[in-house]
Amino acid sequence: MTAGRRTTRRPFRWSVMPRLLAQAPPRVLVVVGFVLIALGVLIVTRPLTSILLLSLYVGLSIIASGVIELAARRRTSPWWTRVIAVVEIVLGLAAIVWIGRSLDLLPGLLAFVLVIGGLASIGEAISRGLVSQRVLSAVWGGAQIAFGVLALSWPDVTVLAVAVVFGVRTVIYGFGLAVRGARGMLGRGRETTRPDPPGTPGRKRQIWMAVGRYALAVVLVGTVSVGWWLNDWLQDGAPVVDAFYEPPEDVPREHGKLIREDDYRGQVPEGAVVKRILYTTTDVRGIRAVASALVILPEGRSLAPRPVVLWNHGTTGVARGCAPSLRDNAATRWAIPALDDVIERGWAVVAPDYTGQGAPGVFPYLIGKGEAQSALDAVLAANEVEGAWLDDRVVVWGHSQGGHAALWTAQLASEYTPELRIRGTVALAPVGDPLALARELLRGDASPNLAVLTSWVLVPYADTYPDVDLRQYVVPGARTIVREMTQRCPTEPGVIVSVLTAMGVSEDRPLYIGDLTTGVLGRRLEQNAVTGPFEQPVLIVWGSDDEVIPPLLQHRLVNRLCAQGDQVRWAVFHGYDHLSVLQPRSTFLPMLLRWTDDRFGARSGAVSRCPG
Q: Are the C-beta atoms of residues 454 and 478 closer than 8 Å to each other?
């Protein structure tokens, strides 16, 4: 083949819009430019509202790009260009048909397209252009790839991050088209065949444009660097679930059986030995499960079996990594009230994580039966720990969510674990009625924190009860966001992402639809209210300034239990908020110890303040 007849290969172009508009009249460019600017602004400011529009836009663009590639390519074109064109068409159809029915998959596709767009920009940087143009194209390509990878690392913010990138990209491209069209309409878009002589304004303009490209490249490099640093910081702060929590293939069939024990790796109180255990239990559906717990024993041998304080922790999140036994301070007086005094008295402490925290499974957040069975089985398994000699006398303590768990533990103990004698129950600022609490919280203004807390209730309920469907309560396209909120703990830096995501989305539209306290979810919440009856005394304590659970609900709980004849004693500590009642300086702690000591001694004084 002679040089004159040599066929030059057209570079493969990933973006369809430049090809469609290459020969368009200036007026068309102006109109399309302003339309794209409006679309980009909509995508950035209303990610959930515009998510369907975005999926259609991306899907149609990909399909058109593939069709044009197939139609324009000759037989001499590389085979891989035709394969990619077919893949583009398939992905575009998926974006319109499949993802139109399941918008939660859209962020993954958009992130994939970002990576493809980045590769295309890098390809253009290699193939043609001025040095400054090549540098900017290469950096922009790398930035798109980095943004795509980061978006996949944080699925709940993918729709926001990708929407911003796509939106800004669309605005910039639309602005460029509008300027090009305007220049064409004004007669200044014609190319000259003679280069500007040195020192002319045209030459200066080219220099300034090159400087601008380099500056933008620096900004992009800085942005990506900050993004990767932030990603590493957030991930490094997340708790790590080690191999201890992975159950073996052969798990005992009986509930309450010890699987393994190990030394606790956090702070150990003076005069105590702390073990973490993995044991068998039964979840709320009656299916075999595995759970973890801490067992805190006073040092030295005991001449008699040790009474057991069964501690049920408050809200720590609902993900596996949120297990208290993974935290460094879970066996201190800041996590378990009056722990040093408990050890001094010679009592043992069993502190379950519940299923789904530490060990795999579904966390039974405010699901009474699941909480109670995990707690009771932890006591049975703790008795198999080397050096433990535990009495069958148990006093149950719990705070907040743990207060709900403690009350449910006392309700179910005689049926589920008749070998244990529950001597009494202490509930600190408990959730006595999840449905009533939900109504109180949702009555106020929506906030990012409430959006995260709602996900902690809604997702475990949906995973536990087949009749609770997330699609009935979460806006289309946001189920990934809501689920990812449940994968972070309030003590890790990554929870910031959940809060910021909730803030960003709430500016668009609420994450949740309908009334969360009605329908199937409302009935399931009501089903998990504390009802009793209680065979042994109950002590309920709360602060007058509780900002989490309205004191009114505690008064209702006490009145309800008194009305059915339960032995209830209660106390309100003025000036105390939700956490103050269990902190080391709380004036309630001496009362807690005396009341528990009376229960272990089977003394019956001052067990009830109910009328009559």
A: no
